[in-house]
Every structure is written in C-alpha cells, then in structure tokens.
Design brief:
heterodimer; A: 416 residues; alpha/beta; FAD/NAD(P)-binding domain; 3 domains; 5-stranded parallel sheet; 8 helices; disordered N terminus; B: Rossmann fold; 19 helices; 30 strands
C-alpha cells in the first residue's frame, strides 16, 4: 500500500523530540506521519521519574502532547514501526516502513482481562529488566496509545488460548504478521534519540559483578511511582534499603575508549537523583566522583542547593575500580585529583552515570544518513534529511525541544 | 442548532457487572434523555449504532463509557456534531471500592451505581448546554513578523521565516545589523575534529538578509510600543534612544490609579498616549520575535580580581575586541579566570554558561596563534564543554603552550595571579601580561522592558525574576512558552548560548511565530489548548468594572477602557478560563464551557437527603494533570471514595466560586479542588491557575463561615500527574474530614 502523502513530512521517533517536531509542524498545517519503534509514544522521557531542575514529572508534558495529537487531524501515528529503506530525494522521498506485529488489534479497550488470565511472564524492558511483567501488558500507566501488547514468544500455546478466550472484544490476533507500507514525503525528520551507553563495555566498573551497581536510567525506574519498586529506592537482588550511595560520573563519557564526547545531561541527572535519594533517605551519605561538574548557567543554582547538603560529598576524581563486597555493597576506588590521595569508599548502592549513544548509529549507513564519527546524524535540510534532539547531539530536554521545533521549521520550508 | 440527542451507555470493560445498568438508563431519562445501552460502544457495532442514529438526525451524542482521555478517534463523529463524554469506566467502576466488612458487595454496587448515574446525568446536562464553537476571526490579519534585534538570533529568525514565505522586518538599535558577532575574531569549531577555530560567518549572514526581498531592515531604530494582538500587532517605531509620546506606558494597577487620582502619587505615564490608543501611523505585524540579546556583565564587584582598578585585568569581551583589532602584541602570557568565588564558592561568573568556558579556550588559542612562544593559562573550577565541545577542549589540552588547571583563584595583584587547590598539588603564583575574566552575558531583558507592550498588565514579560532576568520559558517540555501570546524569545535573552544553539533556537522561534499567526487566522488557540476554536465571550451589560479578569489573566489578554470595562483580545487568549473563574458577575463563558453549563452539571447530581452515609463531595479536577491522575489511579484499580463527583475543568483558575456556592446550596457536603503544584516551580500549564484558585478558596472559606458553614468543607490540594498512587489517600482524607463535620446543615432547604 502507498499513502498519497506528498507535501508531507515523516518524523522518525516518537520521543519528546519526535513528538515536538511532529506537533509543531502539524500545528502550522503540515501533514505529518509519525512513526515510533516502541509500542507507545514518549520514548526515553517516559521512563524518567522527574525532569531537572524543576523536578516535575515528564508525563505531565507528554499528556499535553498526546492531547495535541488527538486533537490534530494532520498527524498520523504508527507504533512498533521502523524505517526499512529510503529512496528518492528531497521533495520526493519514498520511505518503506515496517510495522511489527502487536498481536493486539485496535479493538483493545485496555480492560486488562487478558493480563488477568495470562500465566506467562517476560522481562519488563521498560524497567530495564529489573522485574517481570505479564506477557500481555500495557507498556506503562500513561502508554499512548492505551492498548495492550502481546509478547507472543514468551507465551505457551495454552496461555495464548486463555488470553484469546478472556478477551471479550476480539482484540487478540496471534496470527498478526509484520506489515510493510510506503510513504511519499518531502522531507524526513530523524528524531531517533539515544540509548544509554552499555555499561557492560566499561570493564573497570564491573556492572555485572554486583547487584549494588546500577545505571542512572535504572535509578530513574527505581524512583518512579510506576517502577519495579513503586518508587522505593531498594537495592536490586536483596531489596535492601541502601544506607549509603555513590555516583560514578562520566561512566563511559569523555573517554576515548568509549564515548569521546560529553553526554551533557549526566551531571544534572545525578544532582536530580540526589534529590530522589534525599526524599527517601534524609541522612544517607552520598559520594559523587566526577571530573568536572557540568551544571552551567541556570543549573548552577540547582547544584548549589545540592552541594549545601553536608551529607553529599563531591570528590574530583575518576573511578578506577569497583570491588564487590561480601555484604552486598561495593567499594569505589578513585584518586582524588586535588589531593592526590587514593580514595576507597564503601557504599550500599553505586549508580553509574552512563551517557548517551545515538540510537540510529547501527542503521544509519543502510538508510543513507550522514553521521559524524560517533553516529550522531548530521542535519542536512537542503537534502531533506533533518535531524533533531539527541539523534543530532547529546542534549537535555529543553535543547531537544528547541532543535525539534527548528526541525519542524525546516520541514515546513521544504513544502513551500 | 436544534439539538437531537443520542445517549449511549456502555456496559463493557466490567461496567455492566459493577453497576445496575437500568438505573443508569433511568438517570438519563430523569433529565428527559432516552439512552441506549451497548456491550462495547467503541466496537464497530457500537459505533455503527451511534452512526445510524446520526444518519437518522441525531446531532448531539452523549457517550457514557470510558474516560474522555481515551477512544477519541472512535467517538469522533465530526466537527458539526456535539459529542460529550460521560466517564463511568475510570470515573466510577474501575476506581470502585473493594467490598469490605463496612460495605458488602451489594452496598458497593449501590454506591458505584449512584456515582455512575450522576456521571451520566452530568454528561446529559453538559450536552444540553454545549454549543458548537464559532471561532473568532480577525477582520484584517497581518502575517508579517517583527524581529527585534539584528544579531545572530534575529538574523536567523528572519532568514528562516522568509524561507517559509513570510515577510519579516528586523529592527536593530545600532546603525548596522550583525550584533555582537561583528566583533568576533574567530568562531568555535563546528565540525569534526573540532580542532580549528573558524572564520566568522556573520558577514555572509548579513549579506543573505540584505539580499532577501522578504526581509526589511531598519537600523538605528527601536520599538516605542507594541499594541494589539497576534495577527494584528500595532507597532510604533522610533529612532534609537529617542523619547516618544507613543512609548509604552508603565503598568498602573488599581491601587496606583487610586493614588494617582487622589494626587498622592505621580502619574508615571504623563505625556504618554494611553496604552489603549492606537497610533494611526503604526505598522501592522502578526507576531513578534524578541532577539535583543545580551550585554557583557560588569565584573568590577569582584574586588580581589581587580577589574576596573588593575589595568592588566580585562573581560573576555574586551579581550575579544583586542584580538579582533589585532592588538595582541606583547601578550606573551595571558591568564584566563573562569570562577570569581575565591574560597567561597566554585561557581562560574554570573550569567555565564558553558559558553564562557569555550570562549576561554578560543581566546587561549588566539594567544598561541598570535605568538607561537606565548603561553596561556586557563584556571577553572569546572571546565564546561558539553557534547562535542569536549573534543575542542581535548584538542586545546594537546597544546603544550596552554596550561589548564582546576584552581581556586584567591586574587590578582598587578600581573600576578594567585591560586590554590590546583591539580599540580601546590599553590600557584603566575606572572602574566594580561588577565582575562570569563564574564557572563547579561540578557537585555534584565534591565529594561525590551518588548514594550502597550498592555493593561504592563510593558514587560512577567516573572523575569524567576530566571534572573532571562526571558525564558518555565516549561521544560515547552521552551518557547511565554506569557505573551504571539511573542517569542530566542538567543541571549533566554540564556547565554553559543552560535549553533542560537541558530536552532531562533529557527524554532520563527516557527512558533508563524504558528501563532496561522492559528489566529484560523481562529484557534495556540499551545497548550492548540486548535481550540472556542474563546471567552463577555456579557458586558452586566459588567461591574471590578477589573478582576484583567488583573488575573495569566496572559494579559484583557485590556480595559478608562472605566475599567474589559476589552478582550481573543487572539492573545489561551482559553484557560481564568477570567471566567474570576468574574463575580458570572458574565464570561465559552460555547462549550461556561458558568451555566457547569452549574447545570452540579444541579444534575442527585443529592440524597437524610442519609448520613451518602454525603456528596464535589471535586473539580484540572483536566491536564489531576484528571489523568484520577484515571490512572482507577486503571490501577485503586479504590477512590465513591462519595466524590468529579468535574474536569480546563484549569483550576477557571473555577468560579459560584459553583462552590451552587454545590453547597444544593446540599452537597464539601468541595475539593485538585490542581497543579504552584510556587516558583509551578506545574500549571496556565501559570497561575492553581495558585489563584487557592486564594479564591481561602476567601470563600471566610464567606462560608459567615453563613454558619465550616470553611473546612472547601479545600484545594496539589496533585502531580504522577501521583496516582497517592491521590486515593488525598481524597480519602478530605472525605473523612467532611464525614467528621457531618452533613451539610442546609441540605434539603
């Protein structure tokens, strides 16, 4: 099938950047196709507990954006959909997209009867595998669209039968197949976002050696009211309330063996996560090992507030090693760059402030995208290939929304 | 239009099991509306039932099923039909209590049925009072954009808007466009490997603007005042620095006007045209972009660093000028200081950002490029080179003529810089030819009103103090939001940013300006109620000129005449309804949201008499955050107390206290407002709504006590959208307080 879609723009990625680009263009009157590989819109920010520095929930802005999408006939959205190939050129792209089977059709009312009878489970990817979910699930509380998804390969034949039997609305379709379709568009906005840098690649931080070592994105899920612990910060594995915390800044970033660039957000993310800890553990000592504290401009006030806390200790020094201890905690080892002394600090929970890696890195070449040495997509509006948000560079939410609005501008120019 | 109603009640998703469907049908007929039931209204068969009724003449559809937040496409029957949703799934059934010793299954069903029945009745009442919107259209619309400021931000905004086919006028105070960039010797690297400084591109940018037929440039000029509204701004220009009778008048509030009238205060606007007067010679614009940038910060207050007293100490701005003018001869050793705090703190200079870190790196390279034997010292507390700029930093580190160290600079005396806590493990004393301070970039909005609006609420942006004078958005997700519709800011007025960031920012601002004009043209609202075709209408005959609406509008949409009668500007309006909530005469309303409509919904609630177990508590929930929170609590099958009756509102600011009085005089026992967090980190999408509602509720509490009702019957609670696990408890606590007070003594009167 081919959609008659000339004069329109394709936005790839339904995170905060893609949503913003799509909405800003559509609200000027442009026709927009918005595709998202996940079963829900919202992307990375949907996994965050709060934004810095306001400490407000990301779902608040997402709700407004979803409302804007529902109210706007110029936008068509496709979930579980990725780009397979792109041909043509600016003003006349033909894009082949693939929609993976959800195994749940639009009849789904989100009533949840299917999950009630589902006895099989799968890893909860939304929570970075820190817990299990039913094999048929709503991706998260505010998932948009509000429809279930079936993880078919996690289900036995009898479970599938039970699920089908429980659904009163004929919404389960276990025979659903992958679907391919093509779109003709003037320009493409790449808002493919980022993935957390794989902590397993950082040998000296030994993320697999102890349950007490987690990433900052896992910390977001632990603090979130819809996370695996319903917002309690407990150590994975033994569910112990940690009495002390350590942060490893630049875990993979500013490191030529990993990510050479600075990931922009991790210092502020740590400052924010310190507030999560403080709210739950008013006295727990917190140790932050850093190279530079990159909290420029109006973020300095936020840092000042955090640093006024006498139980938060900032040590300028890169963590060289993390050693698992018998009691379930870990010892962080670093050299204090100012004093030159070796520091060993035992903590109950250690958070790696891992950085951002462009998500489209792997397929960029195949899709004909110009990328820089690190896989970020170089924006080329003249060629109809526009990048924004963290697909373009490591950025915070504000900067991503700005560059996405700018991308929408480039897209509306293309049709004029 | 003459309404033909079709009312449909869904029994799917567990509704049919949890409530007595016949009672729901009866509740609709109690309002004179016949209802049909269906086991899945959202299914193809359900929708075709509705559609065939529409084909048979129904034009007002009441769908009593799931929350209005879901299934919008399924229940969209076209813009020429009125569709009202009654929320009985999340709003009654899914959030029902679990049977307990206190209340057995039959009692729970009874309570849930009563709640669902009230929701059906409220939806029917709403449908009766709802009218189709009739969008406000300007008679004449301008689609030209005014860009204030001809620096990189302004030039970019102009070029980008022109590329999209719009006319732009750039106003620049100086006698040429180009701004600060004209004074740059070189620019930051923008491409891999981020090693080499680049030649300035401002010349090409200026040439592009000058050669663009869609762009008019006016130099040596500034804005005296901007009156009017999006799509129809009326702009008076004047020569830079001149005084004009059209200068934007200062804000004169109700109290000030009083004092002026009594002669105890001087009129600050003597000699100026009143703010509502339109200059016949003014130019028309559809939207405004404020890009007036920044000025270098004064850093003389840091006495230990000696700027202004020690001629060896200059700022980064002064050093850039020296480099541009080729005056670096003799500068064989230069120290750059990033943080002024000495031993007190490790922050950068105020109004710095990561830009000043990068400027220091750039200027250190100037020193080295000027003289291969020269040395540069960069003394920082925290080197700020985010993203790819890290590679620029790394490249500079490779230069063995540039020494970088973390350091606490304790003082500068003559050409000697003293520092401690360095990475070298010892205190430092460096003798240099020149010391450069990494001074910040102060936004022009800090000291002047800049935007010069001729508005009732004054000439400047509000809340500038929240961000030390930056005209920045307070919304992380929505960085272009301002409290002045159709006026967007970009570049140095909102934070210190580098050229790349500025270009993105200005490009986005140009889009928002276009969007505001096109939305005005279509007669619809911009963010956050984008596309809303309703607007507030005023029944002026009953206006008492109390000025509450003009004072409280978060967006300054209302001007007023000399008597104080409001002069609405619908294209400035964001449709939050704060004016409607403010009006004691109840003369403001929208076609689908007004005093009578909500009042009728309240009256539709069945209030049992003489049953102490069945008290009724009215809840107004902000539809942006609190209402979704309630939905999600219900989806999680949390028990929400079934004595509450929830009405979603556009913003708590739109809640008129008349509704509270209506509810209490109808015998309801309490009223609770659930809205967003307020204060400096406010989450209200309309800025002030929840805060204003809180104040109004305090006042109504006083009124209630004069009537012999306990003020505790009215409450306001702040709820974030993620509080779905907490909201049942918040409601339960409030309901328990009301239960302790007992039934409303006016019940039955």
């Amino acid at each position: 099938m081919t959609d008659q879609s000339s004069g329109s723009v394709l936005v790839v990625g339904g995170g905060i950047s893609g949503l913003t680009a799509a909405l800003e263009a559509a609200e000027v009157g442009k026709n927009v196709f918005l595709i998202e590989k996940n079963a829900f819109m919202g992307g990375r920010v949907a996994q965050l507990n709060q934004y810095f520095p306001k400490l407000c929930p990301p779902t608040c802005g997402l709700e407004i954006n979803f409302k804007r999408i529902r109210a706007n006939r110029n936008i068509r959205t496709y979930n579980m959909t990725t780009v397979k190939s792109v041909s043509g050129s600016a003003g006349n792209f033909e894009v082949t997209c693939v929609t993976a089977p959800r195994y749940v059709n639009n009849n789904c009312t989100c009533c949840g009867d299917c999950a009630e009878v589902c006895s099989d489970e799968c890893d909860n990817e939304f929570n970075f595998g820190m817990n299990k979910s039913k094999a048929i699930y709503r991706p998260h509380d505010m998932a948009f669209p509000a429809k279930y998804v079936l993880e078919k390969k996690a289900c036995s034949a009898s479970t599938l039968e039970a699920i089908k039997g429980a659904c009163k609305y004929n919404a389960i379709d276990t025979e659903m197949a992958e679907e391919e379709f093509s779109l003709n568009v003037d320009s493409i906005i790449w808002a493919t976002g980022w993935n957390p840098y794989d902590a397993e690649k950082i040998d000296n931080l030994k993320v697999n050696s102890s349950n007490a070592i987690i990433t900052n994105m896992q910390m977001e899920r632990l603090a979130a009211p819809n996370g695996p612990t319903l917002g309690q910060i407990l150590r994975p594995g033994d569910n112990k309330e940690p009495a002390s915390f350590g942060f490893v800044q630049c875990a993979g970033s500013r490191d030529e063996n990993h990510l050479e660039y600075c990931s922009y957000i991790c210092c502020m993310a740590t400052m924010k996560q310190i507030t999560y800890i403080r709210e739950r553990y008013p006295e727990a000592p917190i140790y932050v090992f850093y190279i530079d504290l990159r909290t420029p401009g109006k973020y300095e006030k936020f840092r000042e507030k955090i640093m006024a806390d006498k139980n938060v200790h900032f040590i300028k020094g890169k963590v060289a090693d993390i050693v698992a201890e018998a009691d379930g905690g870990v010892t962080m080892i670093a050299e204090n760059a100012v004093t030159g002394n070796k520091v060993s600090q035992k903590v109950d929970l250690c958070i790696l402030a891992t950085g951002m890696e462009p998500a489209a890195k792997a397929q960029a070449a195949k899709l004909g995208l110009a990328v820089d040495a690190f896989g970020f997509i170089v924006s080329n509006p003249e060629a109809g290939m526009i990048s924004c948000g963290c697909a373009k560079k490591a950025a915070d939410v504000v900067t991503s929304a700005q560059s996405s609005t700018a991308a929408a501008m480039k897209a509306i120019q293309a049709g004029r | 239009m003459s309404k033909v109603f079709g009312t449909y009640i869904c029994s799917g998703c567990g509704i049919g099991d949890a409530v007595d469907m016949d009672a729901l049908v009866a509740s609709a007929s109690s309002l004179g509306v016949a209802a049909k039931t269906h086991e899945a209204l959202c299914s193809a068969s359900g929708r075709s039932t509705i559609q065939s009724d529409i084909d048979g003449g129904v034009n007002t559809v009441v769908v009593c099923a799931c929350s209005p937040r879901v299934m919008q496409e399924e229940f969209n029957f076209g813009d020429d039909k009125i569709t009202v949703r009654g929320n009985i799934r999340e709003g009654a059934v899914w959030g029902a209590e679990k049977p307990s010793e206190k209340r057995d299954a039959a009692a729970v069903k009874e309570f849930t049925t009563e709640q669902a029945a009230d929701n059906v009745r409220m939806a029917c009442a709403e449908a009766k009072k709802t009218e189709l919107p009739d969008p406000f259209k300007l008679e004449n619309i301008s689609k030209s954009i005014l860009v204030m400021g001809g620096g990189i931000a302004g030039l970019t905004a102009a070029i980008e808007a022109a590329k999209a086919g719009y006319k732009v006028t750039i106003i620049e105070k100086a006698d040429q466009v180009g701004g600060k960039a004209l004074g740059w010797a070189k620019q930051f690297p923008t491409k891999a490997p981020y090693a080499e400084l680049e030649a300035p591109t401002i010349g090409a940018m200026v040439a592009a603007v000058e050669g663009n037929a869609n762009i008019t440039i006016k130099t040596g000029a500034e804005v005296a005042r901007i009156g009017g509204a999006p799509g129809n701004f009326s702009v008076t220009l004047k020569p830079t620095g001149a005084k004009s009778e059209w200068d934007a008048p200062a804000k004169v509030g109700v109290d000030e006007q009083d004092r002026i009238d009594k002669g105890t205060m001087e009129n600050p606007n003597l000699g100026l045209k009143v703010y509502t007067e339109e200059n016949p010679d003014a130019e028309k614009f559809g939207a405004v972009i404020l890009a007036t940038g920044w000025v270098p910060a004064d850093v003389s207050e840091y006495a230990h660093l000696g700027h202004g007293t020690n001629d060896k100490v200059v700022t980064n701005a002064q050093f850039e000028k020296m480099a541009k003018e080729g005056k670096l001869a003799g500068m064989n050793s230069v120290a750059f200081i990033m943080s002024p705090g000495g031993e007190e703190h490790d922050m950068d200079f105020p109004y710095a950002n990561s830009v000043t870190s990068m400027v220091a790196l750039k200027q250190a390279k100037y020193v080295r490029e000027n003289n291969a034997d020269a040395k540069a010292y960069i003394l920082y507390q925290h080197m700020r080179t985010p993203g790819h700029m890290e590679l620029f930093y790394k490249g500079v580190q490779q230069d063995d003529g540039i020494f970088l160290t973390k350091a606490t600079v304790t003082g500068v005396e003559g050409g000697t810089v003293k520092a401690k806590d360095t990475l070298l493990g010892e205190d430092l004393e460096i003798d240099v030819d020149l010391v450069v301070l990494a001074a910040g970039m102060v936004p022009t909005t800090k000291h002047e009103s800049s935007i010069n609006l001729a508005y009732r609420q004054g000439p400047a942006f509000l809340d500038l103090g929240l961000f030390d004078g930056y005209a920045d958005s307070h919304f992380i997700c929505f960085p272009y939001e301002t409290r002045r519709t159709g006026v967007y800011t970009c570049g140095g007025v909102r934070k210190a940013m580098n050229m790349e960031e500025t270009i993105d920012d200005a490009t986005g601002a140009a889009l928002k300006a276009i969007q505001a004009m096109e939305s005005s043209d279509r007669g619809v609202a911009v963010h956050p109620r984008s596309g809303d075709a309703t607007y507030p209408e005023f029944f002026m005959q009953r206006c008492t000129q109390c000025k509450r609406c003009t004072e409280e509008c978060p967006f300054g949409a209302l001007d007023d005449d000399a008597k104080g009668t409001p002069l609405p500007n619908p294209t400035r309006c964001r449709r939050c309804g704060t004016c409607m909530g403010a009006c004691p005469e109840r003369i403001i309303g929208f076609k689908n949201y007004n005093i009578d409509l909500i009042g009728s919904m309240i009256k539709a609630i069945d209030v049992p008499e003489e049953d102490d177990d069945k008290l009724r508590i009215l809840v107004f929930a902000c539809e942006n955050d609190a209402y979704p929170t309630l939905d999600m609590a219900a989806m999680r099958k949390h028990s929400l107390n079934s004595l509450i009756r929830v009405i979603p509102v556009r913003c708590l600011g739109s809640v008129n206290m008349a509704w509270i009085r209506d509810a209490l005089s109808a015998g309801m026992d309490g009223a609770l407002l659930l809205g967003c967090k307020y204060g400096d980190d406010y989450q209200c999408h309309f800025v002030k709504g929840s805060e204003i509602a809180d104040k109004r509720m305090q006042n109504i509490g006083d009124t209630l006590s004069t009537l012999g009702l306990e003020p505790e019957r009215c409450g306001v609670r702040q709820v974030a959208i993620s509080d779905y696990n907490k909201v049942p408890e918040i409601i339960e606590e409030f309901v328990q307080e009301i239960l302790e007070l007992g039934p409303n003594p006016f019940k039955g009167f």
